[in-house]
Amino acid sequence: MKKEKLIRKYDKHVKMYKNICNNRHLERWRRLLLANANGNILEVGVGIGANFPHYNKENVHVTAVDFSPEMIKSAKQTAADYQIDAEFLQKDAEELDFEANSFDCIVSTLTMCGYPHPTRILNQFNRWCRKDGTILLMEHGISSNSALSFAQRIADPLFKKAAGCHCDRNMMKIVEESDLKIDYKNSYWTGIISLIWASPSK
Ligand SMILES: C[S@@+](CC[C@H](N)C(=O)[O-])C[C@H]1O[C@@H](n2cnc3c(N)ncnc32)[C@H](O)[C@@H]1O
């Protein structure tokens, strides 16, 4: 799918994401993941700003990136609602460039499913994050249940067309094969959801 078409698709998903955000499981996992997210934070694929309510507004500055202008618009409103000190970049995550060691914390939730080259972005996180910083990931991917994973593989082309992302990526494996060092991980819903606390390795 061409990038412009994909951006338009995400633009149209704003309302749907606002509904999905009320999901109590997602809320619980976001709260768990972001409990200690502090300092100068980079959040890539910020969407409507669903993580903003979970940041400590006294102690964060967020650089929020998304390539969808409608998502950015909605995230700006969420930042205002929750008094989060944030700046916004409407950019493709794969074209970002920051100095090494720029951030205390890098956050990605439900985004690695969409990038053409997720490992490259994770390796950039490794570079952009301070050596004593944290990379926090909540991603969805393939189930460890064989019947479910079979269905996910079959459904993937349709899923990509409808949602704009893949449902059959092995997220844990992708992160394990990146430069990041996994400090702690957990998975839910037969491995469909992965929560990962990582740090830069090199
Ligand atoms: C499934 S949503 C997740 C949003 C948010 N992180 C959350 O947890 O609710 C994926 C987001 O990533 C953005 N996105 C997808 N591919 C991107 C890319 N290549 N560069 C920047 N943003 C991208 C989409 O516009 C969308 O807002």
The class by helix and strand makeup works out as: alpha/beta
Per DSSP E runs of 2 or more residues, the count of β-strands stands at: 7
Strand order across the biggest sheet?
3-2-1-4-5-7-6
Determine Rg (CA atoms, Å).
16 Å
Which CATH-level-2 architecture?
Answer: 3-Layer(aba) Sandwich
Task: Return the domain count.
Answer: 1
- Give the overall form: globular
Question: Biggest β-sheet, characterized?
Answer: 7 strands, mixed
Q: What's the tally of helices?
A: 7
CATH hierarchy, class: Alpha Beta
pLDDT averaged residue by residue: 96
Quote the distance from N terminus to C terminus: 34 Å
* Fraction of residues in H or I helices: 25-40%
The set of bound ligands, ions and cofactors reads: S-adenosylmethionine
And the CATH topology? Rossmann fold
Low-confidence stretches: none
Order of helices and strands: HHHEEHEEHEHHEE
CATH H-level name... which superfamily? Answer: Vaccinia Virus protein VP39
Portion in beta strands: 25-35%
Q: Please identify the oligomeric state.
A: single chain
GO biological process, one term: methylation
Domain Methyltransferase type: 42-136
Coiled coil: 72-99
GO molecular function, one term: S-adenosylmethionine-dependent methyltransferase activity
